[in-house]
Design a protein that fits this description.
- By secondary structure, the chain is α+β, with helices and mostly antiparallel strands.
- It has three domains: 126 residues, Nucleotidyltransferase, domain 5, CATH 3.30.420; 95 residues, ATPase, nucleotide binding domain (Nucleotidyltransferase, domain 5), CATH 3.30.420.40; 71 residues, ATPase, substrate binding domain, subdomain 4 (Actin, Chain A, domain 4).
- The protein has 13 helices and 18 strands.
- A hairpin with a 2-residue loop joins strand 4 and strand 5.
- Helix 3 crosses helix 4, helix 5 crosses helix 12 and helix 9 crosses helix 11.
- The longest helix has 17 residues.
- The structure holds adenosine-5'-triphosphate.
- Adenosine-5'-triphosphate binds next to helix 6 and helix 7.
């Protein structure tokens, strides 16, 4: 306890996986210190906004807030959609990580999607500086994911990683600490949830919220046909009668419902394989493709990717932590950080 407190006074460098769905923070020497939904509840009074809750507490409020309070997801499709609220969220996580007991402002490494524009890069850096960082480094999500999954990225061999988050899917081939071929698409877990909402609306005339769709995906969703036929009761609002109603959905119809966003991810993998140099492709044939990110846990996604590419595919251990652990790992290796950080 005392050690933690004394350590926090001086060594406060931290890593942030600023995700569309989840924000994870890592403090050097302490590991992951926060794992919370990227949601902020804001109360509007005239032109001013007051943050009333951040993270889990704010997510509980999504779709259930009274008029003056809005629960906002400030990151959309992997990038900042609301600067002011993102800054408030980062400030909350930075303060919480250090219990406001630090003497020195932290050096912060933040991971961002690989397709990010110069303007978006600037916005993330400015938000972190305004939220209390001393120095900010950005690293690309697939690079962080590959480091976090334990791939030997500094060696001269091809490593392929597919990181599927809430807002984006990032596919990259990495060798000698550099991204050789990559593709970032704005399709991830959120688009899969939206496809489920649309399906239930079209087939059953039932309106369900995004949290219910996410539960369906996690409980019975599958990317490829499964022998284990599953069903689930779902509650929503009947669009015809306007009253609450319960229906039963099954894994096969959900597989069909999510096939479009899933096919977009498969296509991105195919395009990156086509763009990668042949020598590196040969390495990937041997080593296979590593899947990271919360979205990679969609049942049988590894099976589908393996069938479609003919290559071995594996989901890494604790895939939702790969990016933050990789971002955190470079805090310990400043030479590697300077090599992989975006300019
Ligand atoms: N068991 C599961 N099956 C399918 N999807 C899952 C499962 N668990 C979590 N997810 C999905 O993973 C996504 C979140 O993943 P993650 O936390 O890696 O994303 P993120 O880092 O916030 O997003 P991004 O990288 O796009 O900014 C959500 O869409 C969530 O629904």
């Amino acid at each position: 306890m005392l050690f933690d407190w004394v350590y926090g006074l001086f060594s406060n460098d931290m890593a942030i996986d600023l995700g569309t769905a989840t924000t994870l923070t890592y403090v050097k020497g302490r590991g992951i210190v926060a794992h919370e939904p990227s949601v902020v509840a804001v109360q509007k009074k005239g032109s001013t906004k007051r943050v009333v809750a951040v993270g889990k507490e704010a997510k509980e409020m999504l779709g259930r807030t009274p008029g003056s309070i809005t629960a906002i997801r400030p990151m959309k499709d992997g990038v900042i959609a609301d600067f002011e609220v993102t800054e408030a969220m980062m400030r909350h996580f930075i303060n919480r990580a250090h219990n406001r007991q630090t003497l020195v402002k932290p050096r912060i490494v933040i991971c961002v999607p690989s397709g990010i524009t110069e303007v978006e890069k600037r916005a993330v850096k400015d938000s972190a500086l305004a939220a209390g960082a001393r120095e900010v480094f950005l690293i690309e999500e697939p690079m962080a994911a590959a480091i976090g999954a334990g791939l030997p990225i500094t060696e001269p061999g091809g490593n392929m990683v597919v990181d599927i988050g809430g807002g984006t899917a990032e596919v990259a081939v990495i060798s000698l600490a550099g991204i050789v071929a990559c593709k970032s698409i704005r399709v991830g877990g959120d688009k899969i949830d939206e496809a489920i909402v649309r399906h239930v609306k079209r087939k059953y005339n039932l309106l369900i919220g995004e949290r219910t769709a996410e539960r369906i995906k996690i409980q019975i969703g599958t990317a490829a046909p499964t022998r284990n036929f599953m069903t689930m009761e779902v509650k929503g609002r009947d669009l015809v009668g306007g009253i609450p109603k319960t229906i039963v959905v099954d894994s096969e119809e959900i597989r069909e419902a999510v096939s479009e966003p899933v096919a977009a991810i498969v296509e991105a993998v195919r395009l990156v394989l086509e763009a990668a140099p042949p020598e590196l492709c040969a390495d990937i044939v041997d080593k296979g493709i590593v899947l990271t990110g919360g979205g990679s846990q969609l049942r049988n996604l590894d099976v589908l990717l393996s069938d479609e590419t003919g290559l071995p595919c594996f989901v890494c251990d604790e895939p939702e932590f790969a990016v933050v652990l990789g971002t955190g790992a470079v805090l310990d290796e400043l030479d590697l950080l300077r090599e992989v950080a975006l300019q």
